[in-house]
Amino acid sequence: MTPAARTQAAIELLDGITAAARDGGAAADTLIARFFAARRYAGSKDRRAIRTLVYDAIRLIGERPPSGRAAMLALIKAQPALAETFDGSSYGPAKVDPGEAAARVGLAPAWLRKLLEASGIDDAELTALLGRAPLDIRVNTLMGSREDAAALFPGAEPVPAVPDALRLPADTPVETNPAANGGLVEVQDAGSQIVAAVAGAAPGMTVVDLCAGAGGKTLALAAAMTNQGRIVATDTDRARLQRLAPRAERAGVTIVESRLLDPNEEANALTDLTDAADVVLIDAPCSGTGTWRRNPEARWRLSQARLDRLIATQARLLDLGATLVRPGGAVVHIVCSLLDGEGAGQVAAFLARHPGWTVEPPQAGAGRPHGAGLRLTPAHDATDGFFVARLIRPC
């Protein structure tokens, strides 16, 4: 493909990503994969170049752009040589009209930036949220040691304060490595591993993973429990939850029971666990502001109305978790968000609703205290952004 054709392809992809962000469609990675699946003629260098253009544009523009072309015109300001590809050729974009408007450059939508600033996120932290994320894996200690895994991944480095994590060179093909196929490793950000460890899961416990999704944290909990005890992994998303069983089998995990729940009716399927769990882990649905390094177009998807709905859901799930944990047990609230409304503020509201509950400061070896919990950020911890708090039910 010519440079002009690559630019035009990036524009078409950005049009699709912008529409999906507006309408709640598929994520950028999914749309990019579909785009190239329908264009087998694009070689690996073409795909890499186009993908880079797309993500460079997304990271540059805080507000959802009016079009893919407007997004690429904004990118010209950062990459002036790109202007030459707007040549009006058969497979390239039309020439630039002198009066043509480019999308607005920025770190985040104005309303969202204000909320982040009010939550203690300064410009340096916000800029780091839009960098490129590293590639981390969790070593499954049920299958082997970190040293065993490191021997299979050239260039792997240990992650400080995360005993089961390795950081790999970018673009390492983890999925095709025998370590992944055999269950020795799982791709998982170091920050995700840190907050899962705050649960304090131990052999013999009964643990409820209330928003298990595809089971990344569930499997980390099982390894911490040395595959002894009971984990009930629940979610309302059938497609995601169905991915847990094959992953657990591959990882040698046998203590997990999965339950598909009906949205807003979760309590009806969990009555047998009332007052029974040692730990309830709530990796709650959230805005994902801490994961912009991986999903920068998420800034274009969030609205105040959607954020309000997420905060309400989190509060409801925390109240549900409080009914499942035994006296003296812990509810662990996790969000991959840096907004206080979902983190510190959410926990403060829970404590106000539940007199007698206390906070146990997380001992994670990373992050910084924030409100009644712990916050991890890309700038400070080189992880995704997280908030985690450990709440203790009175005896």
Return the CATH topology of the largest domain: Rossmann fold
Largest sheet: 9 strands, mixed
Structural domain count? 3
Structural class by secondary-structure content: alpha/beta
Assigned CATH architecture of the largest domain: 3-Layer(aba) Sandwich
Mind telling me the CATH superfamily name of the largest domain? Vaccinia Virus protein VP39
Name of the top-level CATH class of the largest domain:
Alpha Beta
User: Which spans of ≥5 residues are poorly predicted at pLDDT below 50?
Assistant: none
Q: Could you tell me the radius of gyration in angstroms?
A: 22 Å
**Shape, per Cα inertia axes:** globular
Order of helices and strands: HHHHHHEHEEHEHEHEHHEEHHEHEEEHE
Count every beta strand, where a strand is a DSSP E run of 2 or more residues.
Answer: 13
Describe the structure.
The protein is α/β, with parallel strands linked by helices and 395 residues long. It has 3 domains: 3-106; 135-187, Sun protein, domain 3 (Alpha-Beta Plaits, 2-Layer Sandwich), CATH 3.30.70.1170; 190-392, Rossmann fold (3-Layer(aba) Sandwich), CATH 3.40.50. The chain is globular. Helix content is 38%, strand content 17%. The longest helix is centred in the N-terminal third of the chain and has 21 residues, at 3-23. Strands 5, 6, 7, 8, 9, 10, 11, 12 and 13 form a 9-stranded mixed sheet that branches. Strands 2-3-1-4 form a 4-stranded antiparallel sheet. The protein has helices at 3-23, 28-37, 44-60, 68-78, 110-118, 123-128, 146-150, 178-181, 190-197, 216-224, 238-241, 244-251, 298-301, 304-324, 344-353, 378-381, and strands at residues 135-139, 157-159, 162-168, 185-187, 206-209, 230-235, 256-260, 277-283, 325-335, 358-359, 368-370, 373-376, 386-392.
